[in-house]
Design goal:
2 copies of one chain form a homodimer. By secondary structure, chain A is mainly α. Chain A has a domain of about 110 residues: Orthogonal Bundle (Arc Repressor Mutant, subunit A), CATH 1.10.10.10. In chain A, about 55% of the residues lie in helices and about 5% in strands. Chain A contains 7 helices and 3 strands; from the N terminus they run H-H-E-H-H-E-E-H-H-H. In chain A, strands 1-3-2 form a 3-stranded antiparallel β-sheet. In chain A, strand 2 and strand 3 form a beta hairpin. The first copy, chain A, starts with 18 loop residues before the first helix and ends in a 17-residue tail after the last helix. Chains A and B meet through helix 1, helix 2, helix 3, helix 6 and helix 7 of A and helix 1, helix 2, helix 3, helix 6 and helix 7 of B. The structure holds a DNA duplex. Chains A, B: This is MarR family transcriptional regulator. Chains A, B: Keywords: DNA-binding, Transcription, Transcription regulation. Chains A, B: One of its GO terms (molecular function) is DNA-binding transcription factor activity.
Chain lengths: ~170, ~170
Amino acid sequence: MTRSTSTSVDGGGLEDASISSLIPTVSKAHRNLAGSLLAEVGLAAGQQFVLMLLWKASPTSQADLTRQLMIEPPTAAKMLARLEKAGFIERRRSAADGRVVLVSLTESGRALEAPVTSIWTRLEEQTTSDLTPAEQAQLRHLLSRVTRSLTADGDPGPPGAAARPAAR
Amino acid sequence: MTRSTSTSVDGGGLEDASISSLIPTVSKAHRNLAGSLLAEVGLAAGQQFVLMLLWKASPTSQADLTRQLMIEPPTAAKMLARLEKAGFIERRRSAADGRVVLVSLTESGRALEAPVTSIWTRLEEQTTSDLTPAEQAQLRHLLSRVTRSLTADGDPGPPGAAARPAAR
DNA sequence: GAATAATAGTTAGCCGGCTAATGCTAGGTC
DNA sequence: GACCTAGCATTAGCCGGCTAACTATTATTC
């Protein structure tokens, strides 16, 4: 019964895998657990983030949500369409600005706040169950720095290259 | 130009976000960078893992690949179908066992080893560019432990519960 | 005021991930 | 040999993520 079916592609251990292999692995595991917990209340794996933002500010424009979620507009549009179809949110065009769509919670959506908050706490607990508070802080710090390195698109400025305008 | 549009749902900082929020964030950033680098050779974001396994053992059964990649059979089937269509791999039924499909590299697939290895190295370098070697080892260790906590499905054994046989 | 630019959303289509349901092959058991 | 079980792979369909291309509205600029 070969234990631990090896990590993606590196050796078998897990410890000796590259960080580039560990990140997708831990992310998938985390997403799977989140998904199975959220299924209890009828949500799919990423939908809690939308609701969490709406619990803090109910009528929010779709563009604002898109920015805060750090996703692309089409991704947000599809997610919101599903959440609307599921009855957790409502969408209506703004009267003040005909371009913006305002997203607000329905009663069902509001009712999820307590259970989802509980699930989110449980998830965080299981995620960090093997870490001391100091290690958790360390991990947070390391992940933050890695995120910054990954989003600092490209080389940090080789003298001679005419500062590319950050794509797009 | 509002810097750092906030992390998913927690505060604005990044440092003070929950680990459950940081994991998806860092994973998305990592995947996006990987995808843009791999696009250079005509690969999509997860396909390098398949090829990496095949470079180590070219005719490999689909079931083996599925297990090593730690994904579900349908996911593997679709990925392999695309890789086959793209001309990087070939699939044929095993003569010895009519159930198994053997996956092998084509010349195009084999030709990707050098460039993808280079890309993979660059990706890892940018991922860890802000970390000392000690911090990298620390991060690897922490991520490994978190992965184990996340995959150790459910409670770690409340005395009295008759050790559930790992679900499914 | 008309032309242009910037913003906001949508649609189509692709990729990776999953579950549920189906089919097919190989191994056991009686 | 017939039956049942286990293992391998596929199809259909959903979810989150993306790019490219498009529409519609508001804001600028001349």
